[in-house]
């Protein structure tokens, strides 16, 4: 009797594992076009040029990095607020 129950248990575990494999293969086939699209996007324009040490020091001494962060944050908040329905774009 134990052998039969062990056989049923192994069969069910193998079936569950095969369903999991089918799910993974199906999800991978859904994401394959997205992966191809992302891989085709060029990343050459996303690099940030390095700032020379002399300029970096002067920018840090004048507080330019904080000013740029404040302006970028304000622009981000403005964009998020304008995505709220019934709010005019471009105002």
**If you compute it from the alpha carbons, what radius of gyration comes out, rounded to the nearest whole angstrom?**
28 Å
Main sheet, how many strands, which sense, barrel? Answer: none
Oligomer: single chain
Helix-strand makeup class: mainly alpha
Number of strand segments: 0
Structural features, described:
This protein has two domains: 1-32; 53-91, no CATH class. The protein is mainly α. The model has no long low-confidence stretch (mean pLDDT 82). Helix content is 75%, strand content 0%.
Question: Could you provide a short overview of the structure?
Answer:
The protein is an all-alpha fold and 91 residues long. 75% of the residues lie in helices and 0% in strands. The longest helix is centred in the N-terminal third of the chain and has 39 residues.
Give the SSE map.
Elements: H1 2-40, H2 53-62, H3 64-82
Features:
2 domains, 0% strand, single chain, mainly alpha, 3 helices, 75% helix, 91 residues
């Amino acid at each position: 009797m134990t052998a039969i129950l062990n056989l049923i248990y192994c069969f069910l575990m193998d079936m569950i594992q095969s369903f999991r494999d089918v799910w993974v293969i199906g999800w991978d086939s859904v994401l394959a076009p997205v992966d191809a699209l992302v891989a085709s996007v060029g990343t050459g324009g996303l690099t940030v040029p390095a700032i020379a040490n002399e300029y970096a020091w002067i920018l840090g001494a004048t507080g330019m990095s904080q000013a740029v962060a404040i302006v970028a944050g304000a622009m981000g908040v403005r964009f998020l607020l304008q995505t709220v329905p019934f709010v005019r774009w471009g105002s």
